[in-house]
Write a structure and sequence with these properties.
seven-stranded mixed β-sheet, 31% helix, 8 helices, globular, alpha/beta, two-stranded antiparallel sheet, 285 residues, single chain
Length: 285
């Protein structure tokens, strides 16, 4: 309302005393649907009107998958260093400090062990909010240690990927994590311990080229972007128009790269159903 009409309408509140609506009360999905934040959380962070799966982090996935949200975090204090003294528009050390401050995370993955439907499960979950979920040395090390924990304790391992790829600020050190995590997963397979890989939006770059697609069973959330290079890069490289829904989880399922797509509401049930079947256990309700 124009300032010169406020008084005649009986509005006396001074502009400087006006309060903005607190952030985080509402969420607007890409299709324009608006939902209350509390309702969104109760619906597993899925927009109820259009079924859009909102991008979430390790905190929310642990809440969904672990019984009563109880778990023990593994190696929680590992932090990235800057051996290359990398600097672009700002120093890598400054980027790390900013990311830690904004996200309250140490790096782009958290690992934990807890009960899921009464059975032990180790989960490594990436956080896209931390430098785009990029895979650096700490990410590789924490995943490797979580796999070691699974092997030592004979506990199934689940990886939840959400990443833009390798962390450019660590150059070759980042790329080494592809081989490192893949080798650890080979040891997990040799030990006969199940590995479930969940691809969420987005799963790209070196993450896709390593652990994200090496699961005994590979699953994804609806509508997730999954690929190595992004669609724009692929189109520019090939000079051709891409198929409809290229690099979505539905496209990959149709072409045999995934075993199934799971709605987030059914995720815990389906993960445990798979584990029960391959471990010859009674089905847990």
């Amino acid at each position: 309302m124009a300032w010169f009409k406020r008084k005649e309408k009986g509005i006396q509140t001074a502009t400087k005393e006006k309060k903005d609506t607190p952030k985080g009360l509402w969420y607007k999905s890409p299709t324009g649907k608006i939902v209350e934040a509390d309702e969104l959380a109760k619906n597993f962070y899925v927009s109820p009107e259009d079924d859009y799966h909102v991008r979430i982090g390790s905190k929310e996935y642990f809440e969904i998958l672990f019984d009563n949200n109880k778990y023990e975090e593994l190696n929680p204090n590992l932090e990235s260093k800057d051996p290359l003294k990398f600097e672009d528009t700002k120093k890598y050390t400054d980027r790390l400090k900013d990311a830690m401050s904004k996200t309250d995370l140490k790096d782009a993955v958290r690992t934990a062990v807890g009960k899921s439907k009464g059975k032990d499960l180790v989960i490594a979950c990436m956080d896209f909010a931390f430098i785009g979920g990029s895979m650096g040395s700490v990410v590789g090390e924490k995943i490797a240690r979580a796999i070691d924990y699974s092997i030592q304790n004979k506990i199934p391992f689940m990886m939840i990927s959400k990443s833009g790829g390798a962390r450019m600020m660590e150059a070759a050190l980042s790329l080494m994590q592809l081989a490192k995590t893949s080798a650890k997963l080979a040891q997990l397979a040799e030990a006969g311990i199940p590995y479930i890989s969940l691809c969420t939006d987005p799963t790209t770059g070196g993450t896709t080229a390593s652990y994200a697609m090496l699961g005994d069973i590979n699953i994804a959330e609806p509508g997730a972007l999954i690929g190595f290079a992004g669609p724009r890069v692929v189109k520019e490289a090939t000079g051709k128009d891409l198929p409809k829904d290229f690099q979505t989880s539905e496209f990959l399922l149709e072409h045999g790269f995934l075993d199934f797509i799971s709605h987030r509401r059914e995720l815990k049930k389906k993960v445990n159903l798979y584990l029960d079947l391959i471990q010859n256990q009674p089905i847990r309700k």
